[in-house]
Amino acid sequence: MIRPDLLLKPTPKGLYCPPGDFYIDPVRGAVDRAVVTHGHADHARAGHAHVLATPETLAIMASRYGEGFAGATQPLEYGETVEINGVTVWLSPAGHVLGSAQVVVEWKGLRMVCTGDYKRRRDPTCRAFEPVPGTHVFISEATFGLPVFRHPDSDREIAKLLASVRASPDRTHLVGVYALGKAQRVIKLLREAGYHETLYIHGALEKLCRLYEEHGIDLGPLETATLDTSERGAQERFRGQIVLGPPASFHDRWGRRFPDPLPCFASGWMGVRQRAKQSGVELPLIISDHADWDELTDTVREVDPEELWITHGREDALVRWAELEGRKARPLRLVGYEEDAFE
C-alpha cells in the first residue's frame, strides 16, 4: 500500500490531496478546488474557484453566502463517484446536519475517509452516519474526544425542556440553538415529543428553517419572534411559550424583552456544569451534533481502519486510546475549526 500522506496530507490551508490537487474543507483563503463536508462556516467558506459537495450543502452555502459563493459548483449525491485528476472521490452520509458527508478518497488501491463532523445519534433532519467498509485510513473528528463526554439521550433532554415549560407556565423559555442543524433538530424533536403548538424563532433562523422544509423536513408551525414595542403588553403573548434563537441573541436587547425569560441552551458543552453556569444558562440541554467519546471509539472499532488520523478536537486522548488498543494513530493538529461554534 502506498504511503497515506501521498494521497492526503495536512497543510496550513487544510487537508490537501496532491494527486487530485484539491482540498477538503480548506480553512485559510480561497483555493482552486474544494471538497466540502457540510455547510457550517468553519468548514464551508466562500470564494473558492470550484466547490464539490452534496446538493444540500451547496444549497446551504448559497443561502448563507449568496448564489455566487464560488466560481463553479458540482453537486454529488451520496454514493455517486467522480474522478478528479485520477483520484476517485465519493460521499457517504455523516449524520451531522442536512447534507453532511464523509469524503471518501481512493487512489492506487488506498481508501481514505475524512469524516468531517459527525454523530451517531438518531436525527430526524438528516441522513444517518454510514460506516465505509474497507477503509485503510480513517480521519476522524474529536470535538468531544475525552472519556468524560458521554451525552444523554436527546429525547430525555427534550422531555426535560417540556417538563420545565409545564412547571413554569408564566415564563418564556429561551432556547439557544445554532442556526444550522441544531435549531431544526430541536424543533423536530419537540414535534416528535408531541409539542405541536407554534414555536417562535429568531429571524436569524428563518432562512435555514425554510431551506430544511424545502428539502422535505416538516417543522410544523413557526413564527418569527418579533416584539412590537409600540404595542402595549405585546411581549405578554410569549409568556409560557418556547422561543428559539442564536445563543448570543438572548443577551442583547431583543432577548431581554421577553417576560420572565428562562435561559436554556442546547449544546454538548452543557454537560460541563461550569460552562452552563458561566453562560447564565438556567436549563442546560445536553444535545450535541457531534459524536461523544463512546460513539467515537465505537465507530473506530466498527470501521477498523489500518490507521487512524484525528483532527479538530481532543486529539491526544483519542490517540492514546488507539495506542492502548494496538492501533496506529496520529494527531493532525489542523487549525481553523472552532470547537464551540457548531456543536
Write up this protein.
The mean pLDDT is 94. The protein has eight helices and 19 strands. Helix content is 23%, strand content 25%. It folds into two domains: 187 residues, 4-Layer Sandwich (Metallo-beta-lactamase, Chain A); 132 residues, 3-Layer(aba) Sandwich (Rossmann fold). It is an alpha/beta fold and 343 residues long.
Q: What features would you highlight for this structure?
A:
alpha/beta, Rossmann fold, 19 strands, ligase activity, exonuclease activity
Describe, in short, the structure shown:
This protein is 23% helix and 25% strand.
- What is the number of independent domains? 2
Mean pLDDT: 94
The outline comes out as globular
Order of helices and strands: EEEEEHEEEEEEHEHEHEEHEHEHEHE
Q: Total number of helical segments? A: 8
Output the CATH homologous superfamily of the largest domain: Ribonuclease Z/Hydroxyacylglutathione hydrolase-like
Unreliable stretches (pLDDT < 50, length at least 5) are none
| CATH structural fold name of the largest domain | Metallo-beta-lactamase, Chain A
Strand fraction band?
A: 15-25%
Strand order of the largest sheet: 7-8-9-10-11-18-19
User: What Rg, in angstroms, do the CA atoms define?
Assistant: 21 Å
Largest sheet: 7 strands, mixed
Q: Can you count the beta strands?
A: 19
Structural class: alpha/beta
Helix percentage range: 10-25%
Q: Name the CATH architecture of the largest domain.
A: 4-Layer Sandwich
What gap, in angstroms, lies between the N and C termini? 35 Å
Organism: Henriciella mobilis
Pfam families: Lactamase_B
Domain Metallo-beta-lactamase: 31-162
GO molecular function: exonuclease activity; ligase activity; RNA endonuclease activity
